[in-house]
Specification:
The complex is a heterodimer of chains A (146) and B (200). By secondary structure, chain A is of the alpha+beta class. In chain A, 17% of the residues lie in helices and 44% in strands. The longest helix of chain A is centred in the first third of the chain and has 19 residues. Chain B has a domain of 123 residues: ABC-type transport auxiliary lipoprotein component (Rossmann fold), CATH 3.40.50.10610. Chain B has five helices and five strands. In chain B, α2 packs across α4. Classes of the chains: A alpha+beta (146), B alpha/beta (200). Chains A and B meet through α1 and β8 of A and α1 and α2 of B.
Chain lengths: 146, 200
Amino acid sequence: MKLQQVMVTALVASTMLLAGCTIAPVTSGTGAEKLVQGDDFKKHLQVDNAELGKKLHISEVKSRKTNGLLEINLALTSSYKKSQQLQYHFKWFDKDGFVLEANKAPWKPLELHGFQTATVKGLAPSVAVESFSVYVREVPEKYYKF
Amino acid sequence: MKKVILATTIGLALMVTAGCSNKSVIRYGDAAAVETVDINFGSTDLQKVAAEMTDSMLLSPVVGTLTENKRPIVFVERIKNKTSEHIDTESITDSISTKLLRSGKFRFVDMARVESVREQLDFQQNSGMVDPSKAMQFGRQVGAEYMLYGNLSSIVKSNKDQEDVYYKFTMRLMDLESGLVEWADETEIRKTKGKQRVSW
């Protein structure tokens, strides 16, 4: 075996090992901040992850009061041919913009199939909620990504 | 020169390997994050079940009517664990009752602490140590109007390539006087364990 071949093999092996040991990081995503009932979500939309922004977009955010509690419908549309593993969550704010139940709203997993539109639901934990935020992020599955 | 480069490359490769070896690191994680350590019932399932049941109950029109002008008193019976796993179902009911209580729509009586309450009242009444005019009286508690109960069941299937677990969680709210079930809902969870996808 030539020396160069050995070197190339060693380099590839080291890169593989490095990549193999990487814990897939949680990525950023897309969301809308501090919406109140009846707000146009498009004005609040922010895309933090341009790569995800090409594959997924928030197509609708609706809200209404049911039994005195703010209820949210969040529609997500995929513009990608394969399934996507996503997580979404809501944040809740009272009339003064103070966060309620901070860090208690769990991230919820969602599998969105190719070109599918899925609607997920959220309900405010208390009648004091006046505004909310939504956020969707991608779950990286490719551990061997360079 | 070539040997030096070769040695450096191999050395680097070894260093990288050593860097990723089993060095234990402790850090605080996000309690609200999605957990996928194994296929068993986990924190994300608990959070999902508790959130969906509470949301469904608070959104239902019947519960809207029940809670319109008053806060009904509920007692939580228990969730029967019919799965093949050991699951602390009290933890699920704790989460659900806490969320319902914090929503301001319901009130709860806690059957798990009846003995402690009896002991405390007995002490206040009979020990001779508490001012009788300030002692809490027996027989003044308010009875529950509704009972919350449910089942958690699972179907587990596997072959050599993948494992699949399906959980079904059912919950009901019963009017204790009439025996009518006023609200019921169920939620499902599917988890699969397969081979890691590798892409370059």
